[in-house]
Amino acid sequence: MTIIEAIVVVSGLVSVYFLTRQNIWCWPTGLVSVGLATIVFYDSFLYSDMILHVYYFGMNIYGWIHWKRKSENVDELPVTRMSMPSNVKWIVITVIGTIAWGWAMSHLVLIAEWVLVNIDPNIGWASSWAGGAAPVPAFPYGDAFTTVASLVAMWFMAQKRIENWVYWFIIDIVAVSIYAMKGLYLFSGQYFILLILCAMGFRDWRKSMSESSIS
Questions:
Q1: Within a 10 A sphere around the Cβ of 72, how many other Cβ atoms?
Q2: In this structure, is residue 145 part of a structural domain?
Q3: Which residues have C-beta within 8 Å of that of residue 125, sequence separation ≥ 6?
Q4: Which of 30, 56, 174, 209 has the largest CB neighbor count within 10 A?
């Protein structure tokens, strides 16, 4: 997996660098990174991250199309920021989502049993999980936070909201710890570098942001 991890790291860093420069090539390079990362996370039993990267893949396609479509009408899709009520709303969503997802990942056997009783007693994966073969997530709540917060941050990123950098910074701090404890040292190192890129991205996007563009 080391070669794949290396490709994920390099393409991911290139993608984020392009993002800090508001360069549309952040999206195709991102597709390479998240596509291969999905395989790595599956083999490392980080199922929340695996699901997250499937979402990333779709959002990279969306962001690529959205940025390209906007750039055909104006010089560049502008950077904007959200109002305080919008920020509070998304923080609440992130907290609730983290708690709910973390609980679900911590109770896969219970969920499987519920599915067997209330939906279909012959569902294969549910029978297997209820019988003791359910995967055991490594860090269910930490993994859940990076998953839910990243869903939000990725949406902000595709919309060119400057708040995406704040979310990514916090996510990266958590991710550095999780990946180091799982022995994914290349990924841990990647996220440490991403912390620096987040600060650069926030600084550069703020410079280009129109102060009147608040929604």
A1: 7
A2: yes
A3: 112
A4: 30
The residue with tokens 């906007």 is 70
pLDDT tens by residue, 55-74: 888 989 998 888 887 655 56
- Are the C-beta atoms of residues 150 and 170 closer than 8 Å to each other? no
Number of domains in the chain: 1
Helix residue ranges, H only, the chain: 2-20, 26-43, 47-73, 84-106, 108-118, 124-128, 140-158, 163-181, 185-208
Segment 104-128 shows an average pLDDT of: 88
Helix/strand/coil for 24: coil
161 occurs within a structural domain: yes
Range of the domain at 12: 2-208
Tell me the sheet residues that pair with 214.
81
Count the neighbouring beta carbons within 10 Å of the beta carbon of residue 93. 14
Phi, psi of 122 (to 5 degrees): -110, 10
Sign of the CA dihedral with 36 first, then 173, 146, and 86 last:
negative
Report the distance separating Cα 194 and Cα 33, nearest Å: 14
For residue 215, is it within any domain?
A: no
Residue whose structure tokens are 């990725």: 154
- Three-class secondary structure of residue 80 per DSSP: strand
pLDDT at 71: 56
Q: Which pLDDT tens digit goes with each residue over 145-167?
A: 988 998 999 999 988 899 999 99
- Tokens 């040292």 identify what position? 185
Q: How far is CA 60 from the centre of its chain?
A: 11
Answer yes or no: is 79 within a domain.
yes
